[in-house]
């Protein structure tokens, strides 16, 4: 009986010491900083989705993105599916340019097709990382700036801005409209 009592006391003491808070070690939070992507929708003046591959008037073959001296044509999500890492770590993987539909949880339905360009490291400081959206002989600069640092409490401090040309955009989702004159404009 003494054997079981001593064993129980040993187990209890071990459990109690492993639950003590160590005030000198604040590394118990692991931060995954989301990668940065550009998301681009394109509609005509009637609001029709021009990135929908099932439409005969889609612009997927006429649009591309230039970045770091290379031009990317849009690929479908199926084409990049095998290269998507299957991991719990939310680290950036650069996929170039692809298009896909996203679920709109507010409307409980799929939203429009989007061009997606990225991913870029959300922890990397960038003064102005610019891509060029090419369409119909026109070049449309789209950019972001990212300032990242760790706060004194070891939480992330992130200051991000997105731009369409020189216009500050509300987010990394660029809703564009193709005007009657064939130019793209940012819808606010």
Keywords:
12 strands, six-stranded antiparallel beta sheet, mainly beta, 2 helices
The proportion of strand residues reads: 35-45%
Low-confidence stretches: none
Name the average pLDDT: 86
Q: Mind summarizing the main beta sheet?
A: 6 strands, mixed
Give, in order, the helices and strands: HEEEEHEEEEEEEE
Q: Order of strands across the widest beta sheet?
A: 4-5-6-1-11-12
Distance between the termini: 77 Å
Number of strands: 12
Class per helix and strand makeup? mainly beta
Radius of gyration: 24 Å
Counting H and I runs of at least 4 residues, what is the number of helices? 2
| Overall geometry | globular
Helix content: 10-25%
């Amino acid at each position: 009986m003494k054997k079981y009592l001593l064993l129980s006391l040993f187990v209890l003491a071990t459990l109690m010491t492993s639950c003590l808070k160590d005030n000198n070690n604040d590394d118990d939070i692991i931060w995954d900083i989301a990668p940065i992507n550009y998301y681009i929708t394109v509609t005509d003046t009637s609001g029709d989705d021009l990135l929908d591959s099932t439409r005969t008037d889609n612009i997927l073959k006429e649009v591309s993105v230039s970045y770091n001296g290379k031009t990317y044509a849009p690929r479908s999500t199926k084409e990049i599916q095998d290269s998507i890492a299957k991991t719990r770590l939310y680290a950036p993987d650069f996929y170039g340019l692809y298009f896909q539909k996203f679920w709109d949880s507010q409307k409980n339905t799929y939203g429009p097709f989007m061009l997606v360009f990225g991913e870029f490291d959300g922890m990397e400081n960038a003064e102005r990382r610019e891509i060029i959206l090419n369409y119909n002989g026109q070049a449309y600069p789209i950019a972001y700036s990212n300032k990242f640092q760790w706060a004194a409490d070891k939480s992330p401090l992130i200051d991000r801005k997105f731009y369409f040309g020189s216009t500050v955009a509300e987010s990394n989702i660029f809703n564009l409209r193709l005007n009657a004159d064939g130019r793209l404009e940012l819808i606010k």
